[in-house]
Specification:
By secondary structure, this protein is mostly helical. Helix content is about 60%, strand content about 0%. The model has no long low-confidence stretch (mean pLDDT about 85).
């Protein structure tokens, strides 16, 4: 959006885009998406760093891995349905499914089980998703501005969780296979250095 653009069509163009090496042709997020999701989002990573982060995330999304969480998922669905049906006789399907998906992801995949934290994150993530493809106008009241503020609050809430999980990994209370965040905290780059909290946060948001 607002950047020089080249349109490539045809068989040769498709082959070039899909087969080019990272140092020749690499994906780049639009300005708004990069600001909201972060520069270290898997959608913008390439090469070794992309493969490393993708491996950590996909290890929990394979069918054989998700089978281990079926019982917990079933209990979460039942609990949320009971809560909703106690409040009202009518359930808004789209809103409920968004909340259910978010709860399962953060409870099971990311290991964030505190309900107050999840509720606050849910509200901010809604603002973030609306801002990803908005016009990059950073002015109070705009969708983009609200999205940036929501991202900042998400970072503030997730940073203490990362610190706590790092300590639990060090003391072996958690293992790298406990959840996605623990897995990414245990990652090491080509220089055997941790990937950094900013990378983990960007990919939690993504």
């Amino acid at each position: 959006m607002g950047s020089p653009t080249v349109v490539i069509i045809g068989k040769a163009g498709n082959k070039f885009i899909l087969g080019a090496e990272d140092d020749v042709f690499a994906a780049k997020l639009p300005v708004t998406a990069e600001a909201i999701l972060g520069k270290e989002s898997i959608l913008g990573l390439t090469g070794f760093r992309y493969r490393m982060v993708k491996g950590a995330m996909m290890s929990f999304l394979k069918p054989e891995s998700l089978q281990n969480y079926l019982k917990e998922m079933d209990e979460l669905v039942k609990r949320l349905l009971l809560i909703k049906t106690k409040e009202t006789d009518t359930i808004k399907a789209v809103t409920f499914m968004k909340k259910l998906t978010f709860t399962i992801a953060f409870n099971i995949l990311f290991g964030i089980k505190d309900e107050c934290t999840r509720e606050a994150l849910f509200e901010d993530f809604n603002l973030v998703f609306k801002a990803i493809w908005s016009l990059p106008v950073n002015f109070p009241g705009t969708v983009y501005w609200r999205g940036l503020k929501a991202r900042s609050r998400i970072v503030d809430r997730i940073l203490p969780i990362l610190g706590m999980k790092s300590e639990e990994l060090s003391s072996r209370i958690l293992s790298p296979t406990s959840d996605v965040i623990s897995s990414m905290l245990a990652l090491r780059d080509q220089n055997q250095q941790p990937i950094g909290h900013h990378t983990i946060i960007d990919n939690c948001i993504t």
